[in-house]
Amino acid sequence: MNLGRTKDGPTAAPRPGAALAALAAAQFTVMLATSIVNVALPQIRDGAGLSDQGTTWVVNAYSLAFGALLLAGGRAGDLLGRRRVLVAGLVLFTGASLAAGLASSPGVLIAARTAQGLGAAAIAPAALALTIDLFPPGPARGRALGVWGAVSGAGGAAGVLLGGILTQAWGWPWIFHAVALGTALVLLAVAVLVPGGSGRGTGRFDLPGTVTVTLALTFLVWALTSARGAGWTDPGVLGALLGALSLFAVFAVIECRRPDALVPPRLFATGRVAAGNLLMALLGSVWIALFFFLPLYQQQVLGMSALATGAGQLPFAAANMLGALAAPRLARRIGVTVTLTAGLLCEGAGLLWLSRIDSGGSYAVEILGPIVLAGLGLSVAFVQLTALAVDGVPERDAGLAGGLVNTTRQIGGVIGLACLATLAGSVTAEVSGHASVPEALTAGYRAAFAVSAAILAVTALLAPLLTRPGRRTGTASGAGDAACPLPPHTALPSHASLPPLETDAPAPPRRCQDTDRTPAT
Of 26, 101, 278, 314, which is the most buried if we count CB atoms within 10 A? Predict the structure, then answer.
């Protein structure tokens, strides 16, 4: 039986499958809110009286707060109790979503989106850490992270679909009302089904480090999101980038000197945390861009309605869920590194296929095949990188590890989207003098998809080099070098008997090895 902890001590968690469903629903909600506004931006602009610049901040305000505060949210969960922080984040997220739907002025709407981002920064790392608490290293955790990956990718695709349906049926405020209602149901499920987790931690909160890195991330995200409209040579953008770099340097000095650092060096001395986060940042740089450019191409070039654009994401969502659920089994059979590399190459192939889109094409010819391929690859790679990013992390740092991997994905996405949007805009402007508007837009989107495919090819080349298992310096419980815990996706013999998801039967003891596959038997 899996055990959670409350402030009063351990408490039984007889239904870890039900608890996982509630935690996955919390992650789904966060991802849904990231993409649900994309299709409805024109209607939001007209309905709330926003300028073009203000409209971009309906997206940017959420991304800014979410990306900048994820590390603080993860550490707060470790110190204050993960379930407590998760519940508080869900309450804030529900209220902010309701406020956004009721907003009658641009300022209120943008402030509500900022509050949504703050709530998401508490939800995402706490929910991931509680999932890690529920499932010990081994096949059970692998399957749990497979579910996690499935709902993460499906949430982004479902946001586009639901945004199109609600906007066309009842108007843009209902995209926020629906999120508020869904989050309230998730909050109820968490309260009933999720055990207390690890309770309060014993460390101290690193206030100087938290403030410094939060400001650094804020400057960085603001500069990158503003660069899409103001340009990379704008003095404000350059000043913000310089401020971010300076603050990151100060943060590094602070962390080296504090005993209770926000990002302690020990986090990178166990497992393959650094490699997982670096590769996740590269994956995130093209992941978010895919959800940005594809709906634009569908609506502005192919002339699809908001509803049809959203419905067009269903094959992607189905492929994403299939790949995420299959990823743990693939990793056990052919190894983590091979599975990760194959997933990256599969997604890259889908994006390369999208780089051949035509302004006179159709959904079935231009989009359907590529998004199925990209969805399968994305989900497989996401599951493996999430597992790597928490592999071997001491239990007391699980929330921080969850915050860190979400931060790298989010910041990677912001950086990638800023660069790719600039590239697409430049190509569109260059060819607009001798091409129609749809042709010029298509040329920009093709360039963005081609560069995204190249980024994934580089990531696939790096993956085998960075994820080669070596000697571990700690265990999942921080017990030192004596033990060799079973990593989340360690390969097992093909005939091995796998326990069901709801069990926490301990994995059989095994020797430490230098490969990520068990020798054939």
Answer: 26
